[in-house]
Amino acid sequence: MKPLMILPLLACTLLLPGALFAQDVDSLLSALTTPATEYASATFKATRIINGHSIKQMKARQLDFRIHHRFGEVRGGAYELWGLDQSTIFLGLEYGVTDWLMVGAGRSSYKKAYNGFGKFRLWRQSSGEENMPVAISGYAGIDVQTLDWTDPQRENYFSSRLSYIFQLFIARKFSEELSLQVTPSVVHRNLVPTALDENDLFALGFGGRYKLTSRISFNAEYFLVITPGREGVEKPVDALSLGFDIETGGHVFQLMFTNALLMTERGFIGETTGQWSKGGVHLGFNISRVFTL
Amino acid sequence: MKTAIYLTLLLVSIAAPMQGQDKFLCKNGHIWFYSETPLETIEAHNYTVASVLTPATGDVVFQLLIKSFKFERALMEEHFNENFMESAKFPKSDFKGKIVNLKEIDFSKNGSYKAVVEGDLTIHNRTNRIRQNGTIEVKGTAILVKAKFDIAPKDYDIEIPSAVRDKIAKTVAVTVDMTYEPYRK
Q1: Which residues of A touch B185 (CB under 8 A)?
Q2: What's the CA angle centered on B86, arms A29 and B97, to 5 degrees?
Q3: Which candidate in B14, B122, B164 is best for mutational testing of the A interface (most A CBs within 10 A)?
Q4: Which of A25, A209, B55, B156 sits at 20 to 30 Å (Cα–Cα) from A93?
């Protein structure tokens, strides 16, 4: 009887404090190096999916110099070298003030427009202790068109040059390859061409990327204008863009085909006229160069 | 009589693991690497390296999270994880080895000892056998381990595209700086 009672005791001594076995070492180290909450990173390669902003922000002290360029419509044919004779350009400087706040300013050649914006992180996608299936960020921007007044005779107000843009980015990185984003958007234009045009345009953006290699991804983006057009006024065409992100060191090149000529929200949501079915498509590219200040 | 035998067995079984399995733990070890070319200097630090050292057997085990390497430039850090280390696929790196010259190190006496460590280093899911020199310093109840060695990214199947080849050194200098305390469960 007695020996049998000692056996469990013997077993216990093997688990004495201080005694640690190989598999315990592994699990101990593993526990120490596994973060409680893991945040999704690099949901998109650039701060733009194609025309519209992505969930990605410049981190603190990162400056992004952007050159966006769109050629003319492909339907111009050989005479226009399929649009390459024309060009519309946007230049931007965008900066990460903190990891959660990014500000930017830019200028578009179309209507000599300046824009400024703030983009702020609300929630990050995370798993583990803190679980959040999607990332959410907000965006507020202002657009100032400085083109000479079409009718200098009438009383023109500075406020007529302004538009305001508000967006929410709701994104999820489903896997290393696939990320999708929904972008509810409002564009408020202080002055519209005719009394029949809506001042407020509501739109819903859909975008995504699929990584083909670690440095190249295929991107697609669609902005659905929800605000119904009034009778007698042409509704803006929904912007559909397809393209590739190519990353090389500190640069990201984005090559795309899009029916939107304009590269800011006011433009591609509210003033897109090109139609894919009629060859109203532009070849274009964005170049992003990031500097650390 | 039988009781006496079992008692002896019991005592032995207590004593043996106590002596042989005394372990030292480091939770926040520091490992950093440095790459220098005329075009670019790259430096990244990981302050959350975990390691267990067993003086009696000379066993050393290290483990670290690749994503815990912090760079000065956020973009570099992103590329390091996304493109080079593929840290979503291979989140951790570890080393399992032994102190080869255990006889020359007296863990019960304060002092600095030269140590030779040999073992398997796994980075980017590729394991290589390495043998490196370092120093072990016994300081009261603590054990300090320092080592410096070079590793070549290509030995660990880390692909470096031609566009950045001139910016990343062929061999990267790795520095290890650990402080161990006796481990109590």
Answers
A1: 17-18, 20
A2: 35
A3: B14
A4: A209
3-state secondary structure of B27: strand
**Could you confirm whether domain A37-292 is CATH 3.40.50.10800?**
no
Bridge-based pairing state of the strands B126-139 and B111-123:
antiparallel
pLDDT tens for the 185 residues of chain B, in order: 667 666 665 555 554 444 445 899 999 999 999 999 998 899 999 999 999 999 999 999 999 999 999 998 888 999 999 889 999 999 999 999 999 999 999 999 999 999 999 999 999 999 999 999 999 999 999 999 999 999 999 999 998 888 788 889 999 999 999 999 999 86
Matching residue, tokens 């408020």: A188
Q: Domain limits of chain B?
A: 22-182
Q: How far apart are CA A75 and CA A57, in angstroms?
A: 35
pTM of the model: 0.84
Which amino acid makes up residue A200? D
For the structural domain made of B22-182, what CATH number should be given? 2.40.128.110
ipTM value for the complex: 0.79
**Contact between A176 and B89 (Cβ < 8 Å):** yes
CA of B15 vs chain A CAs: smallest distance (Å): 9
Verify whether the Cβ–Cβ distance B17 to A33 is below 8 Å: no
- Minimal CA separation from A59 to chain B, in Å: 7
Are A19 and B79 within 8 A, CB to CB?
no
